[in-house]
Amino acid sequence: MGEPPSSLLSDAELHLAYSAHGRIDCREELVRRHLGLAHGLARRYATSGVPMEDLEQVAALALVRAVDRFDPTVGVAFKSYAIPSILGELKRYFRDHSWSARVPRPVQERLLKVTRLTDELSSGLGRSPSVAEIALAAGESPEQVLEALEARVAFTTESLDGGGAPSEDGEPRSRAETLGREDERFEAVEHRATLRSSWDVLDQRDRQILKLRFVNELTQSQIATEIGVSQMQISRLIRRALDQVRAVADPDDSQAVA
How far is CA 227 from CA 4, 78, 129, 209, 235, in A? Predict the structure, then answer.
């Protein structure tokens, strides 16, 4: 009896046929099946000024690597593994190539406003404001605020002396001047994407803590009060839980840290 055509197999069956029996057609089918997903993730960075063709190529290569590195014994679906893996490759692409990309003027202006309001709200509230609070103060939607925060990626530079994010009057600032002011909310956006796709590896308490931190945007002190433990314990629990999801999302990075 002949082998079933790859188009009729599930993702898990495709990977098994490729990894255990060397069926290259199954590898190609798994890539083809998720190529639209990879291109969709690349489009999240469309405002960075980097050519979309380059972004889609990086995402496609990341998808191929995800197929080759996927371990179904971990207990997560291939798609849940592939999403954070592809996002990680896109992030490294920006970091390693130090793009000084051209951001559309409206997004630049929104970024300046968001940066100014973040400083003002932080002073007034005594804490970092949430995306919703920034959006309300700016008269923008939360999605527009997140777009502006993501655009900050485009202000990477070749050295500490060149082209940091512009100052309020439009003058360029050095990377050294802006290095200490990197917005943690961009990292929080990435954490949320990773958490959605790797949720199954966490126990109930870890899920609750990370939901409070990255979805409800509570501070560690507020979470400690909610859960009934110390803030130091919350900090350790968040770090441990994020290490767990990173290990599933990007095993190469987790091994490098270990």
Answer: 51, 33, 22, 8, 12
Level-2 CATH architecture, domain 202-257: Orthogonal Bundle (1.10)
| Domain layout of the chain by residue ranges | 6-97, 105-182, 202-257
- pTM of the prediction? 0.43
Q: CATH code for 6-97?
A: 1.10.1740.10
Position of tokens 């409800």? 216
pLDDT tens-digit readout, 82-113: 998 898 888 878 666 544 455 567 777 888 88
- Return the minimum-mean-pLDDT range out of 4-13, 16-25, 118-127, 228-237: 4-13
The Cα 142–Cα 155 span in angstroms is: 21
